[in-house]
Design a protein that fits this description.
single chain, mainly alpha, two-stranded antiparallel ribbon, 4 strands, 62% helix, 6% strand, flat
Length: 249
C-alpha cells in the first residue's frame, strides 16, 4: 500500500518537473498548491512540495512582474512604486533589479518621499532600506518615524539593523538566556523584539535592557497559560506597539 502511495506522488512530482521544463510554471504551481494542503501527504513528500512551492511562487511572481513592468520606463515604474500613499513592493523589487547600478541622487529624492510619509509603515520603510543595503546602494535618506514623531537622516550602508544595535543585541542575548527552558518560544520573543525595534527606529524604548528582556520573557511564558496572564502596563504598551498606536513618552 505504501509503495502505491509513493508511486502516486512520484507521478505527481514527474508531472510538476515536466511542466517546469516546459516553462508552464503557473500550472506547476497550481498542482503544488493543491497537493500541499492534502492531510494525507507523507512527510518526505511534504518537504519536497514546500520547497517547490517556495521556488515556483518566487519564479511565477518574477515572471508576472516582468510581464507587467518590462515595457515601462524608469519613471513609469517609479510612479507605480508609490501611488495613493501606498507602496507597491513588487514594483520596487523590479525597479531595484533593473536599476540597482543606475540609481542617481534624483532617485534618492524620490525615495525620500516614501521614507518621510506617515502613511507608510515602519516595517515597509525599514524593508526598503534593508534591500538598498543588500544591493550595495549607498545613499543618505531623510527619514520620518511617525511613532516617535522624529525626523533624521540614515545612510543605507550604515549599521542600522537591529543586530548591530548594542541595546537590542544585549536584550536578545538576555531573552535567549531567560527562555532556555522554553527554546521553542525564543523565535516568538525575538519577533516581538523586532517589532519594538521597528516601532522605535532608530531609538530605543525607556526600559533598561534587563527590564525589557525580563518583561518579554514573562509575557511569552504567561501566554502559554492564559489563566495566569494579568493585565499590566507592559501588556498595554506592547499592545499599542502591535497596533502601531502612538505611545505617550
Amino acid at each position: 500500500m505504501g509503495n502505491k502511495k509513493n508511486d502516486f506522488y512520484e507521478k505527481i512530482m514527474d508531472k510538476i518537473y515536466d511542466l517546469t521544463k516546459k516553462g508552464e510554471l503557473e500550472e506547476a504551481l497550481k498542482i503544488v498548491e493543491e497537493e500541499i494542503v492534502s492531510p494525507y501527504i507523507p512527510a518526505d513528500y511534504l518537504n519536497d512540495f514546500e520547497r517547490l512551492y517556495t521556488e515556483l511562487k518566487k519564479a511565477v511572481t518574477a515572471m508576472s512582474m516582468e510581464k507587467k513592468y518590462a515595457g515601462m520606463t524608469k519613471l513609469e515604474i517609479m510612479s507605480q512604486i508609490f501611488k495613493k500613499n501606498t507602496v507597491n513592493m513588487n514594483a520596487f523589487t523590479f525597479f531595484l533589479s533593473r536599476y540597482v547600478y543606475e540609481m542617481e541622487q534624483i532617485d534618492a529624492h524620490f525615495f525620500n518621499t516614501i521614507f518621510l510619509s506617515s502613511s507608510v509603515s515602519m516595517f515597509e520603510k525599514i524593508f526598503i532600506l534593508e534591500q538598498f543595503k543588500f544591493a550595495d546602494v549607498n545613499f543618505t535618506f531623510e527619514f520620518y518615524n511617525q511613532n516617535s514623531n522624529k525626523n533624521f537622516c540614515v545612510n543605507s550602508m550604515s549599521d542600522f539593523e537591529m543586530s548591530n544595535a548594542q541595546y537590542y543585541a544585549s536584550v536578545e542575548k538576555k531573552i535567549k538566556s531567560a527562555l532556555l527552558k522554553w527554546p521553542s518560544s525564543i523565535t516568538l520573543a525575538l519577533d516581538l523584539l523586532k517589532m519594538i525595534y521597528e516601532y522605535y527606529f532608530i531609538g530605543v524604548p525607556s526600559f533598561s535592557e534587563e527590564e525589557l528582556a525580563f518583561q518579554l520573557a514573562k509575557y511569552i511564558t504567561e501566554s502559554f497559560e492564559p489563566k495566569n496572564v494579568q493585565a499590566s502596563s507592559f501588556h498595554n504598551w506592547l499592545e499599542l506597539i502591535a497596533f502601531n498606536k502612538k505611545i505617550k513618552n
